[in-house]
Description:
Mean pLDDT: 97
CATH architecture of the domain at 2-192 and 225-251 and 294-311: 3-Layer(aba) Sandwich
Shape: globular
CATH class of the domain at 2-192 and 225-251 and 294-311: Alpha Beta
Strand order of the largest sheet: 3-2-1-4-5-6-11
Low-confidence stretches: none
Number of helices: 13
Distance between the termini: 45 Å
Order of helices and strands: EHEEHEHHHEHEEHEEEHEEHEHHHH
Bound molecules: nicotinamide-adenine-dinucleotide, thymidine-5'-diphosphate
CATH topology of the domain at 2-192 and 225-251 and 294-311: Rossmann fold
Largest sheet: 7 strands, parallel
Amino acid sequence: MILVTGGAGFIGSNFVLQWLAAQDEPVVNLDKLTYAGNLRNLDQLRGDARHVFVRGDIDDAELVARLLREHQPRAVLNFAAESHVDRSILGPAEFVRTNIHGTFNLLQAARAHWSGLSDEAKRRFRFLQVSTDEVYGSLAAGDAPFRETTAYAPNSPYAASKAAADHMVRAYHHTYGLPTLTTNCSNNYGPFQFPEKLIPLVILNALAGKAIPVYGDGKNVRDWLHVDDHCGGVRKVLEAGRPGEVYNIGGSSEKNNLEVVQTLCAVLDELRPAAKPYASLITYVKDRPGHDRRYAIDASKMRRELGWQPAENFAGGLRRTVSWYLAHAEWALSVTSGEYQKWVSANYQERGAA
Ligand code: NAD
Ligand code: TYD
């Protein structure tokens, strides 16, 4: 069995669903159910004995030690994190606690557990850290994409907290020999993404006839990857990645934000026509402080060493994603009440767009 953390969030829940669709190896899913965690993402697994959900904090040493002792997982995959850059700007403390200290706590527990295993079980054990391309900082137009050897230069409190965690993972391999793997992935999109992130936010705002906020000049570039392809990449790394190594995962699909927003509006015009084109809702708002200009991933190591490549292209993946949000209006409604509305006021009022 494997232990997944953050498996009720966007990527974690997609990973758990994909994992159990592909094989019968059980999953223990440890998630604190913050605002971003939602058990509805895992509805398909109700009554499925292969999925054991535990509500709890990765920073709880006793709980993590107990889960490792009781379930004896062959791997720990750490998806749990505070994951939104804008939230990290308004409130960085939780990012330090969960992303840095929480990962440290998991590493400590994993090391203690791993030390007591038989030689064969020790050799097979893996600690996989799910990280982000944001640790590498910002590229200028024309710069080569991030490689695994690119120096870390995080710019936001979110990126800095993920970078700190990655360094601890690296140190636990080099110092203690813990068989770690780290993946640094580019921006994901797909089903179950919390609508604080660009793509679901645009879809839901457009459908509600609300302003579609574009930060700054809309020319910041992200390298988009469908979440299924990210999850497939993580599975490959777990299966065949070399301990101590880092793997960059990305879609080679660079788009600036305005292109993304305009494409979303065009797909919506086609699938759910409204009185006016959705693009008429686009509103430029005050930029994000320290806004990274461009991210791009060189995923050639994944291709070369693990034979991985994305199955979905951006146009197809985006269309599929819009269709998913149209078909799951009640999911969106359930996550956009209460706390979510408070976040929208906090983030956008000050930008003149709430
Ligand atoms: P998310 O915010 O949607 O989900 C995070 C999950 O972690 C939630 O279910 C939440 O309840 C849980 N969680 C938070 N704090 C916790 C704690 N202390 N203990 C236990 N559970 C806790 O995030 P996501 O977009 O699914 O990202 C998952 C991982 O992938 C993160 O580590 C993120 O840094 C990384 N990542 C995300 C992207 C992206 O585009 N979203 C890209 C690359 C890497
Ligand atoms: P986001 O989805 O928050 O991901 P990240 O900051 O981790 O890349 O944002 C993606 C891009 O979209 C980023 O350049 C910021 C921009 N953005 C907007 O223009 N408007 C918005 O309302 C949001 C949430 C993001």
